[in-house]
Design a protein that fits this description.
This protein has about 600 residues and is mainly β. Helix content is about 5%, strand content about 55%. The protein has a 38-stranded antiparallel β-sheet that branches. The two termini are about 55 Å apart. About 35% of the residues are buried. Pfam families: OstA_2.
Length: about 600
């Protein structure tokens, strides 16, 4: 029984070997000159060019060279001098030297190797070519020339069926407009699409892109970046969960958790969507945007439905539209829109509508809270000193109304057409109100006992503040009115016409910038797939089953998977004078 099993195993082995041998078709060749030199090349035929190059063909591949050593029994040859290799109409390769095993369909080329495809040209010192896998591989440095760019790397692999290069280790893509440095880059020749993996930069004269996973169209000059991605425009940095970049339009957009940093003006804008137009030096931010600028060692926060920042660094302008909210530790405010000129230090709080108030649409005038004071009007201007960054003055235009809660009860009120407030070390100390002014304030003694309620009308008023509370009031040009005892002052007349206390809207912390607003629905980011896991280029083989041949220039250890460069061996020069004992032309079967 054991003997029978052994025969079956032997028969199966022989059949398998026979089948494998039949699949490995023999290499055909033509040559002007053929000789043998058993002493130097035992078992080989030496082929040489006289007028025509030596020509090999094997299963769709053609090779031309000046000289060759052909091991017919092993189905293996070594080619020397002006080597050219073609596979169909799409792959051609030239080199000084090449080897080819017809059984394994594995080739090796060295010495000024140039492999050409319709869209790309690969140049390297040495190249491995597996025809079964339809893959080429180098690990001693290579250069790929595309129609738009040049790519270099230490290690590279080309997948012919996908028309794809996979570069690793010191990858550099050079374009006339930019340079890409990456840890790993997959490049598709037909489309010019590049997939970037690991720490990657794209540098040009006007911008630097960084990402750890991204996509770039090298011919269309557009990109999409995720994972720690950012764009640096020298004076402005854009970060986000995903970034889109269009070099042709000088445009970029960021989505989800975006941060735009102005490195010159020390300001930061956050939100969940941003568009950047570099040529116009403008940024538009939506989806819960908030801008933070440094002012006198204190940050000013501005939030609105949409924020737009325009202008060169020295003349930045911030505009906010719809439901504007401002917060600073000693001041807060609201308006329909806002305009901030960082060069002049002017901030405008504007009502979106200057038309008459109707029962349908109630105007929400801009409002500022400073200390215990509330100021409203059709338009409010805040003026800061650009050098000291301290607040200088405040101006309220049309329907100016100042309200301050009394220490015990009621409200101290001042109204007029225009209001000008002056600040010292960011604290308001003086307010002038002009044109048709009217005051109503509670007068108290040092013990806070109410002396009466003062109601006065005059052409203008000056109010002096002490520690953010009304201290003194001066009336000009024949004021009318005076102090009235509390019991003689009707309760229903203790509020001036136009009174609108909005203390419940006051922002007490920066978190109040978003009070009452729902969280935005964030866009689902389209990821970039990880690179395909590459199978090992060199298959594991038995000791006596070589990818090339025992007569190969390479050692078996050179055909193993590793990152080191292949050994640099001296180029073997094969000349007819070194091979032939005489100059006669011989038949391939003739023994010398």
């Amino acid at each position: 029984m054991k003997y029978f099993n052994f025969l079956i195993l032997l028969l199966f082995t022989c059949c398998s070997y026979s089948s494998y041998a039949q699949d490995a078709k023999k290499i055909d060749y033509t040559s002007d000159r053929q000789v043998k030199n058993e002493e130097r090349y035992p078992g080989a035929i030496i082929l040489s060019k006289v007028e025509n190059q030596v020509h090999f063909t094997h299963q769709g591949i053609e090779v031309w060279c000046d000289n060759a050593v052909f091991y017919n029994q092993d189905n293996f040859f070594k080619a020397f001098g002006n080597v050219r290799m073609h596979q169909g109409d799409t792959v051609s390769m030239a080199s000084n030297y090449a080897e080819y095993n017809g059984t394994t369909q594995f080739a090796f080329a060295s010495g000024k190797v140039v492999m050409q495809r319709p869209q790309t040209t690969l140049k390297t010192d040495s190249l491995f070519f597996d025809r079964v896998k339809q893959q080429a591989y180098y690990r001693s440095g290579g250069k790929v020339i595309d129609t738009a760019s040049v790519l270099t790397s230490t290690v590279g692999r080309y997948y012919m069926e996908q028309d794809k290069y996979s570069f690793v280790s010191d990858v550099v893509l050079t374009n006339p407009e930019y340079v890409i440095n990456s840890e790993q880059l997959d490049f598709y020749s037909e489309t010019g699409h590049a997939y970037l993996y690991g720490p990657t930069t794209i540098e040009s004269e006007t911008s630097t892109v960084y990402c750890e996973r991204g996509f770039y169209d090298t011919r269309g000059d557009t990109g999409y970046f995720v994972k720690n991605s950012q764009i640096d425009y020298k004076n402005r940095k854009v970060e986000g969960d995903s970034l889109y970049f269009d070099r042709n339009r000088n445009f970029a957009s960021a989505t989800n958790n975006i941060v735009v940093t102005d490195t010159i003006n020390q300001s930061v804008v956050k939100g969940h969507y941003a568009e950047v137009f570099r040529e116009r030096d403008s940024v538009i931010i939506t989806k819960r945007p908030v801008a933070a600028t440094l002012q006198d060692k204190d940050s000013v926060f501005i939030h609105s439905d949409t924020l737009m920042i325009t202008g060169v660094p020295e003349e930045r302008v911030i505009r906010g539209f719809y439901d504007v909210r401002i917060f600073k530790t000693d001041m807060s405010g609201k308006s329909d829109s806002i305009y901030v000129d960082q060069k002049t230090g002017l901030t405008k709080l504007i009502n979106k509508s200057s038309g008459p108030v109707t029962s349908v649409s109630k105007r929400r005038n801009p409002v500022i809270w400073s200390g215990e004071s509330q100021m409203t009007g059709d338009t409010i201007h805040l003026k800061s000193n650009p050098e000291t960054e301290q607040l200088d003055s405040l101006m309220v235009f049309n329907n100016a109304f100042l309200i301050q809660k009394d220490t015990v009860e009621g409200y101290n009120q001042v109204k007029g057409m225009e209001l000008v407030g002056l600040f010292r070390e960011n604290d308001i100390y003086q307010v002038d109100i002009n044109k048709n002014t009217e005051t109503l304030n509670y007068m108290r003694n040092d013990q806070q006992e109410l002396l009466g309620i003062n109601r006065t009308v005059s052409s203008s008023i000056r109010i002096m503040f002490n520690e953010q509370e009304i201290d003194e009031i001066y009336y000009f040009d024949d004021p009318e009115g005076g102090l009235i005892p509390e019991e003689e002052f009707p309760v229903n007349e203790r509020l001036l016409i136009g009174f609108n206390w909005r203390g419940e809207e006051r922002l007490m912390t920066k978190e109040d910038l978003f009070k009452g607003k729902p969280l935005p629905e964030l866009v689902r980011i389209q990821g970039i797939p990880l690179p395909e896991e590459q199978e090992e280029f060199f298959d594991q083989r038995e000791d006596d089953d070589l990818l090339l041949n025992e007569n190969s220039r390479l050692q078996p250890e050179d055909l193993q998977n590793k990152e080191e460069d292949p050994p640099q061996q001296e180029q073997e020069e094969l000349q007819p004078a070194n091979l032939l004992k005489d100059e006669s032309v011989t038949d391939e079967n003739e023994e010398i």
